[in-house]
Amino acid sequence: MKSRFHTVLVLSLLLVCSAFGAAEPGGNGDSIQDMQCGGACHGDASINETSSAILSLSSPSTIYVGIPTTLTLTATNLETSSTRLIGLFLLTDMTGHSDTPQDAGWEILSDANGGTMNYLEQTLTPGQNETSISWVVRASTLGSTTFYAAIHHGGGYSSPFFGTTTVGFEVSVEPVPENLPRLAADFAPPTLRMLDTPTELNIETQFTDSIQFEWKSDDGLISNSFVNSTGDNSWTTTIPAALQPTTIQWRVLLEGEGPEQTTPWFTLAAEESSWEVSENAVYLQAFALLFMTAGIVIALQTRFTSKSSPSKYDEAPLVLEELALTDTLSPSQEIAAPPRPVAGLPIGWTEEQWNTHGHDYLAGKHGGGQA
Amino acid sequence: MISSGTFHVVTTELVVGAFSVAGLSFTLCLLLHLGVLKQPSWPPVVDHVAHFTLAFGLAATPFAILSGLSSAPGEGLNSPILVNKMFLSMTGFGFALGCLVSRWRLGNKVWSTTKSAVLHSSSGLAAVGSMLLTASAGGTFARGESLLDLFHLPYEEVLLFPVFISVTGLLLGVIMLVLSWKRMNPSSSVH
């Protein structure tokens, strides 16, 4: 009875402790995510709480098909956990599946963190209770799309919080005016560059006679870079090297026959060179570790186990013992010939017969007991 | 079809769950054979549970490794954590393999002496420890945190041997396996 009580007590403690492990307070990393990260953690209605954050989306008044535009999410009234980490979503649906901008035919060209994700994480500064975050997106079809935003964050007692925009934000995509200077329809801006290396940026445009390149760092100071033409609607410019991991934003001003255009601010993040290793050496060492550990374990186990008592079914030692005993009793090797009688060998016996059967003769067991 | 990331989550949960039960069972085996626990009916039960769960976890391990490689962002082994995960999982695989082969070929004799029982339980526990460390490294890689962070394990440091040492270790391991296997299969006394 006492042991059962202890078992129930331990299980109860484990169940209580599990409440402290809700969600992922360390974040999940920027990624392509549907609402509630596939229904996990913050999406569980039984454990999450409603965020007090107020979310609102905004965009330029006119959006053309195939031309990048900026969608900005503003979050206010933020209350977070001690980590001050929040996760923000850009969505086109509220069903929890197939609700990313890509699912609605939109392409994310650049996000605020230097990637192309619809879910971004941001760490707030102490005391900060509002933030703003942008995505540069491009529509592939005409028509209207309703965008939504959602937020995940922690709170008191590690409870996961979840919130969404109260109403959708509808944008209408219009056809591109003729001869409008613009980036090429298939232009994909880079989002990452290496440290300590100047970045050469190639820009493809359409209906453009000249461009002006601007970039700014975190301090907001706008700088210009010289642009070279490398062909019809093809341009190149160089951005100075970054000395530490940071982000810059850049845009171009396009001039041509049509009205002058300015692209959205694209984010370009600088990071350290990727870590490299010889994969063959890694795989070779991994298999060496596998065979070494298995070999050592089996060798030691065999060594230690071989000294143990033999199986009760193993009769080999007994058989060997009996064989040895039989060999010991072999008369031809161990029994000496009896002394020859003074009167000589019995009549008809040979020397060999006496040596073999002489003992029996003397014992009266052979030849009628006569000596 | 499911993504390799989701498949990796499924397989790692199978591996970690199975190895955790194996770890608990091997601990009980050790305590029973050392006489710390005195439950005469327990040894066969925990012995079977330990080896079955270890075998199950071992069967799921290759799927976890392969799906983990394909679901990692970027191309190939581009992070020291991934390399350490590979080393740890293969080491755990080796410990588990050695433990299971010993139990299979030697039978109950692995529990016949204290030294043998301690070695067998230790190899099982080493397999479990390696796999749990692998899972912890995975948490550090994916989320930036893990339960074992309190030990400040150096996941960012990689101990990569020169190729000739790896080749030598590989050959030694294979030789030990072959010799031990032959030693575990002595010729019948009838012959």
Brief description of this entry?
The complex is a heterodimer of chains A (371) and B (191). Chain A has 371 residues and is α+β, with helices and mostly antiparallel strands.
Q: Can you describe what's shown?
A:
The complex is a heterodimer of chains A (371) and B (191). The longest helix of chain A has 27 residues, at 279-305. Chain A has five helices and 21 strands. Chain A has helices at 2-18, 279-305, 316-328, 331-334, 351-362, and strands at 49-50, 54-58, 63-64, 69-76, 85-91, 106-111, 119-123, 131-139, 143-153, 161-164, 169-174, 182-183, 192-194, 199-206, 210-216, 222-225, 227-231, 234-239, 247-255, 261-262, 266-271. In chain A, the strands form four sheets. In chain A, strands 1, 3, 5, 7, 9, 10 and 11 form a seven-stranded mixed β-sheet that branches. In chain A, strands 13, 15, 16, 19, 20 and 21 form a six-stranded mixed β-sheet that branches. By secondary structure, chain A is of the alpha+beta class. Chain A has four domains: 20-176, Immunoglobulin-like (Sandwich), CATH 2.60.40; 178-274, Immunoglobulin-like (Sandwich); 279-305; 316-369, no CATH class. With 191 residues, chain B is mainly α. Chain B has a single domain (4-157), classed as Four Helix Bundle (Hemerythrin (Met), subunit A), CATH 1.20.120. In chain B, α1 runs antiparallel to α4 and α3 runs antiparallel to α4 (114-143). Chain B is globular and about 50 Å long. The chains are: A alpha+beta (371), B mainly alpha (191).
